[in-house]
Amino acid sequence: MYHKQLDDFPADFLWGAASAAYQIEGAWNVDGKGPSIWDTFSKIKGKTYEGTTGDVAVDHYHLYKDDVRLMAEMGLRAYRFSVSWSRVIPDGDGRVNEAGLLFYERLVDELLANKIEPVITLYHWDLPQSLQDRFNGWESRETIKAFKKYCEVLYRRLGKKVTYWVSMNEQNVFTTLGYRWAIHPPGVTDLKRMYEANHIINLANAEAIKLFHELVPNGKIGPSFGYGPMYPLNADPANVLAAENGESFNNDWWLDVYCKGTYPRFVRKQLVRLGIAPTVLEEDEILLKSAKPDFLGINYYHGGTAQQNRLELSDKDCEKEFLGTDPYLMQPKSGQAVTPEIPMFNAVENPYLQKTDWVWEIDPIGFRIALRRVQARYDLPIFITENGLGAIDTIAENGQIKDYYRIDYLKNHILEMKKAITDGVDIIGYCAWSFTDLLSWLNGYKKRYGFVYVNRTEHEEKDLRRIPKESYYWYKQLILENGVSIK
Ligand code: NOJ
Questions:
Q1: Measured from the CB, is residue 386 less than 6 Å from ligand 1?
Q2: 263 CA to middle of ligand 1, Å?
Q3: Which of 222, 281, 286 lies closest to 426, judged by CA?
Q4: Is the beta carbon of 24 within 6 A of some atom in ligand 1?
Q5: Residue 440 Cα, ligand 1 centroid: separation in angstroms?
Q6: How many angstroms does the Cα of residue 318 sit away from the middle of ligand 1?
């Protein structure tokens, strides 16, 4: 008789793939859609690679049935996608655009008809431009009200059909890139504003979760966080402490709020000292405490390595040294990592790790460490909502796309995830990033992630033909066997 091994993937494990509206849909002004901050930002000269925009992207809006057919042929059990807020409510808080809503309903129906579990992300960075113009976007509490309204529209329309929902995608990344580095919209470099906006987003996230639990009692919701574990450069206690500091600033700052409803005292104290702590009202504290996610979404790409900063910083020095908090902001062109630094913590290269073409460290064991840490700290079921390799794929003469490097990458990460399950981590599913190739926010179509190649470049839309890569067939087999023979 067959005895289920403790380290098997659960029978209902959600093997999936992910995407985001702006990166795939195109149809940016079709059927009543309003512009988002990305529609506007990408059209400003010099903001994106070779001026690429998501105006057409991979035209998933018109080709979604073809894409779902490919998912079904692959045996995909879950598909994570995001809803474009301004497609559903063009100005963010006013009239509902039925045509936009219908697109998502049809997509959900198509997925369900093919036995694919839809996973809906409510916010994947494309804020309605009108909210930015009228209220300064996430810097205003008006945007919380608007988000709540938008969520309500979706919960009421799709809550009976869709079980899994992601409230917020990589808040740590979009706030840092948008309000500190100014390389994402709204293009601000101001730490005070960054922390204020971040707090407003926490409140919006909490409202969305609370409302979900009222309106969709049988569903499950959680945020997706871009988690990267911090390592000390070596066993020098000063570096170990630096890694602790990094962990607090890069991860706990967000995860404690999501999962425990409180800001970590250590980080808060530093921010107060620097005069950049957000204004937190008493009612905010109550709200944050009252909205517990059902699962924690983890997007895993890589972590970071910390070395001590100067330990005896005066407040003034500290201000000078204070550079930010993002775990993985790598700039492809210079080939150089943008190192996040905070007081008492310098980010340095890890001498043991190889890097991708975009100088992101490749660290499968870090994935296991990440899962273990998050499970131990928050004890919630975990849904891997992203993990994947950005690379330059080419079509061989025989028409194949031999992305063996991607297979290798995914295999090594899935193996470590399997070990984490053996370790006792409760994991619901794994969505590789991404299903088809898609627009990389700042890297056009050069940096590809998909299981399915899309025939287009920055300059030429070509025929947008879909071609399954070798990794597509590999993942198909893995799903078929429920990961049993992976080694
Ligand atoms: C995180 C983001 O959620 C996604 O939109 C992005 O394309 C991938 N990581 C790869 O950078």
A1: yes
A2: 25
A3: 222
A4: no
A5: 7
A6: 31
The separation between the first and the last C-alpha atoms of the chain, rounded to the nearest angstrom, is: 23
170 lines ligand 1 (CB under 6 A): yes
Q: Compute, in angstroms, the gap from residue 301 CA to the centroid of ligand 1.
A: 9
Q: Is residue 7 part of a domain?
A: no
Distance, CA of 245 to CA of 288 (rounded, Å):
23
Task: Write down the pLDDT at residue 485.
Answer: 85
**182 — alpha (psi -120 to 50), left (phi > 0) or beta?**
left
Active site residue 458: no
Atom of ligand 1 nearest to the CA of 20: 5
Positions of the chain with pLDDT under 50: 1-3, 311-342
The share of the chain scoring above pLDDT 70, in percent, equals 91
Say what angle helices 253-260 and 191-215 make with each other, to 10 degrees: 20
Q: Is residue 65 part of a domain?
A: yes
CATH of the domain at 370: 3.20.20.80
Is position 361 within any domain? yes
Name the residue among 126, 280, 141 with its Cα closest to residue 207. Answer: 141
Q: E strands within 93-218?
A: 117-121, 164-169
- 299 touches ligand 1 (CB under 6 Å): yes
Rounded-to-integer distance, Cα 326 and Cα 194, Å: 12
Nearest alpha carbon to residue 341 among 314, 321, 362 = 321
Domain count, the chain: 1
Exactly one of 110, 386, 397, 481 is catalytic; name it.
Answer: 386
Note the residue count of the chain: 487
Task: Find the domain containing 79 and state its range.
Answer: 14-481
| CB 207 near ligand 1, within 6 Å | no
Query: Quick one: CA torsion of 374, 378, 381, 385, rounded to 10 degrees?
Result: -50
